[in-house]
Specification:
1 helix; mainly beta; single chain
């Protein structure tokens, strides 16, 4: 899952070893399938030393699966499936 924000900030949440390089303002987090992942976006950027823009707004939310090109044709077809139980984004920063 890729969450993109103001000023090209991004959070990429993926299974261990499945991330792809987005940009130098991206925070990468891995998860274990079947578990609930809860992250504080403000703390993620703070811990990574990435300054928060003002305003801080979500620009894009994407669910992507990647099957990279194989060096030679596969003998069988490849199918990917994604199961997402829920995505909940809660704004806890009161103004």
């Amino acid at each position: 899952m890729l969450l993109s924000f103001t000023n090209k900030l991004a959070v990429q949440i993926s299974q261990l070893g499945q991330t792809f390089v987005w940009n130098d303002k991206t925070v990468y987090r891995s998860f274990t399938p079947g578990q609930i992942t809860i992250e504080n976006l403000y703390n993620l950027f703070l811990e990574a030393g990435i300054p928060m823009p003002d305003p801080f707004e979500m620009v894009y939310l994407g669910l992507d699966q990647h099957l990279y090109e194989l060096e030679s044709p596969a003998a069988e077809s490849h199918v990917q499936r994604m199961k997402v139980d829920f995505i909940q984004i809660v704004e806890g920063n009161m103004q």
